[in-house]
Amino acid sequence: MIDTEDNDMTMYGADPEQLTALGNTLSAQIEVLHQVTGTVERVMTGTVWQGPARQRFEQDWYGSFTQVLARLQDALDAAGRDCVNRSFELSRIMGG
Q1: N or C: which terminus of the chain carries fewer CB neighbours within 10 A?
Q2: SS3 letters for the chain?
Q3: Dihedral of CA 15/17/21/24: which sign?
């Protein structure tokens, strides 16, 4: 919702190009999260570290952390696709 200063009308909707850009940006963040996951796992594999602190970290990483990252990836994917789909629909309705 955007309030304009020139009049009392309120606009609802979105600029299709901006919405597409947002969708693409959200979708691109999925790869960033894949890179984070891969980097952490590679570094952990190559790090000499033994003891309860490592065990706790690995339990957290392979338990809740990776699950949260997977849910975030799913949410970014869904939101990105939704933005792009809505953009196409807006363009179609607007005749663009």
Answers
A1: N
A2: CEECCCCCCEECCCCHHHHHHHHHHHHHHHHHHHHHHHHHHHHHHHCCCCCHHHHHHHHHHHHHHHHHHHHHHHHHHHHHHHHHHHHHHHHHHHCC
A3: positive
pTM value is 0.80
* pLDDT (tens digit per residue) in 72-95: 999 999 999 999 999 999 999 888
Domain range summary for the chain, segments of one domain joined by +: 53-96
> Alpha-carbon distance 50 to 37, whole Å?
21
Give the C-alpha separation, 69 to 82, whole Å: 20
Q: How many residues does the chain have?
A: 96
**Of the candidates 66, 91, 86, 73, the residue with the CA atom closest to the CA atom of residue 27:** 73
